[in-house]
UniProtKB/TrEMBL annotation:
Stored Gene3D superfamilies: ABC transporter involved in vitamin B12 uptake, BtuC (1.10.3470.10)
Signal peptide feature range: none
Domain of life: Bacteria
Pfam families: FecCD
Record's keyword annotation contains Membrane: yes
Similarity-based family: Belongs to the binding-protein-dependent transport system permease family. FecCD subfamily.
GO terms, biological process: siderophore-iron import into cell
The protein's name: Iron ABC transporter permease
A single GO cellular-component term on record: plasma membrane
Transmembrane feature ranges: 26-48, 80-99, 111-130, 136-154, 166-188, 208-227, 248-274, 294-312, 324-341
Length: 348
């Protein structure tokens, strides 16, 4: 009797490993850094006064070059301040949206920039403060007070996106009306602050950059340290505690970070809108809601937007220039409307 051999056992080929999302995100971040470097180089090269690229390069590298003063005293500090302020506004907007779970949270729309501006205007009118070193302390105080006020008026721990937006809009309108009144009633304050209130990088110098850089660096570090626990907090306080996060500490860290970032950036550049609102939404389409990736992307791409707007303002109105706050306001509105119409605004 013949024995029928069993059919050969077929061993299924192992499934190919799923591509990890880390590599594409890291590659995208590297491309973003290269884009930022290109825009920074463009900011140094392009100005209200046209200079050949060779002359700019000579002025950047050689102290005895005729263009050294233009490059090192005007364009280079302006570019560095744009890098720092853009990163600060982008990261501040991202952590605020994550904390409040409000896709409209933004240092401008929630009144935080207006609080810093009101404090600086008060200091300029009553004390005569006109330097960035003096303004930065008042700006951070104003930003901290308004951050706490919006959070409390919006309902504290039970705040809803609608209540936070309404509280921020009310405080924003009130504080900017106050700033306008101070400037109209005090001619000296008007002279000191008329370009600053629009949002400008034009008055940047190396002392301004050195004054605000430590505050902005500290704010960025605090925000990055809060990224992982903020991810847990998005699941709710109970789930966050189960994952080892401390909700009260996380909220405190975010408030400190936003105060440092918005206060220092506003003291140096004035209130600039739409950067902190628009960039996190654009970045979230690339990274998803994970703040460990969202914040580094915002820190790189928000300066791209700010410096790009600044270069555009210099080119459009030669031999004068449009202030960067005006350009971001004009560009930001249509861009955000396009983003909303293209797809629903992603919730943080």
């Amino acid at each position: 009797m013949s024995v029928i051999a069993p059919p050969p056992t077929t061993v299924a080929a192992p499934a190919p490993p799923r591509p990890r999302r880390v590599a594409p995100r890291a590659a995208g971040l590297a491309v973003s850094v290269l884009l930022l470097a290109a825009v920074a180089l463009l900011s140094i090269t392009v100005g209200a006064k046209q200079l050949p690229l060779a002359d700019v390069w000579q002025g950047l590298l050689h102290r005895d070059a005729a263009e050294y003063a233009v490059v090192h005293r005007m364009r280079l500090p302006r570019t560095l301040l744009g890098l720092l302020a853009g990163a600060a506004l982008g990261v501040a907007g991202a952590v605020m949206q994550a904390l409040t779970r409000n896709p409209l949270a933004d240092p401008g729309l929630l009144g935080i920039n207006a609080g810093a501006a009101a404090a600086v205007a008060t200091a300029a009118a009553l004390v005569g403060v006109g330097t960035v070193g003096g303004q930065v302390w008042f700006a951070m105080l104003g930003a901290a007070v308004v951050t706490a006020a919006v959070y409390l008026v919006g309902g504290g721990r039970g705040a809803t996106p609608a209540r936070l937006a309404l509280a921020g809009a009310a405080l924003n309108a009130t504080l900017y009306s106050y700033v306008s009144a101070v400037m109209l009633l005090d001619a000296a304050s008007l002279e000191r602050l008329r370009f600053w209130t629009v949002g400008s990088l034009a008055s940047a110098d190396i002392d301004t950059v050195g004054t605000v850089a430590p505050f902005l660096a500290a704010g960025l570090l605090v925000a990055l340290a809060a990224a992982r626990p903020l991810n847990a907090l998005a699941l709710g306080d109970d789930a966050a505690r189960a994952l080892g996060a401390r909700p009260a500490l996380v909220r405190g860290m975010v408030i400190v970070a936003v105060t440092l970032l918005c206060g220092a950036a506003t003291a140096a550049c004035g209130p600039i809108v739409f950067v902190g609102l628009l960039v996190p939404h654009l970045v979230r389409a690339l990274t998803g809601p994970d703040l460990r990736w969202l914040l580094p992307y915002c820190a790189v791409l928000a300066p791209v937007l700010l410096l790009g707007a600044d270069v555009l303002g210099r080119v459009l109105s030669r031999p004068g220039e449009l202030q960067v706050g005006m350009v971001t306001a004009v560009l930001g509105g249509p861009l955000f409307l396009w983003l909303v119409l293209r797809r629903p605004v992603a919730r943080p």
